[in-house]
Amino acid sequence: MTVNVEMVKCGCADCVCIVTPGKAVEAEGRSFCSDSCAQHHADGDGCEHAGCACHG
Ligand SMILES: [Zn+2]
Ligand SMILES: [Zn+2]
Ligand SMILES: [Zn+2]
């Protein structure tokens, strides 16, 4: 049995999260783990993942 799940790091440079296609937020041709990252933290919000310090 083959497990073929592509794992891609979030497009946000400061984000350490790994996103899976299908769950990712697509923006600018990249995959992001959350809307906050996709919008470059325009609202100053971090992503909702514990342990991730990205806030843009
Ligand atoms: Zn994150
Ligand atoms: Zn992210
Ligand atoms: Zn981020």
Distance between the termini: 40 Å
Bound ions, cofactors and other small molecules, one mention each: zinc ion
CATH architecture, by name, is Roll
Main beta sheet, described? 2 strands, antiparallel
CATH topology: Ribosomal Protein L24e, Chain: T
Number of strands: 4
CATH top-level class: Mainly Beta
Protein name: Metallothionein
Organism: Sphingomonas endophytica
Keywords: Metal-binding, Metal-thiolate cluster
Pfam family, one: Metallothio_Pro
In a few lines, what is going on in this structure?
This protein is mainly beta and 56 residues long. Helix content is 7%, strand content 18%. The model has no long low-confidence stretch (mean pLDDT 88).
Describe this structure in words.
This is Metallothionein. InterPro entries: Metalthion_dom_sf (IPR017854), Metalthion_fam14_prok (IPR000518). Pfam families: Metallothio_Pro. Keywords: Metal-binding, Metal-thiolate cluster. With 56 residues, this protein is mostly beta strands. The protein has one domain: Ribosomal Protein L24e, Chain: T (Roll). Helices cover 7% and strands 18% of the residues. The longest helix has 4 residues. The termini are far apart. Bound molecules: zinc ion (3 copies).
Any chance you could write out the topology, listing elements then pairs?
Blueprint: E1 8-9, E2 18-19, E3 25-27, E4 30-32, H1 35-38
Antiparallel strand pairs: 1-2, 3-4
Bound molecules: zinc ion (ZN) (3 copies).
What are the main properties of this structure?
single chain; 56 residues; 1 helix; metal-binding; Ribosomal Protein L24e, Chain: T; two-stranded antiparallel ribbon; 7% helix; two-stranded antiparallel sheet; binds zinc ion; metal-thiolate cluster; 18% strand; mainly beta
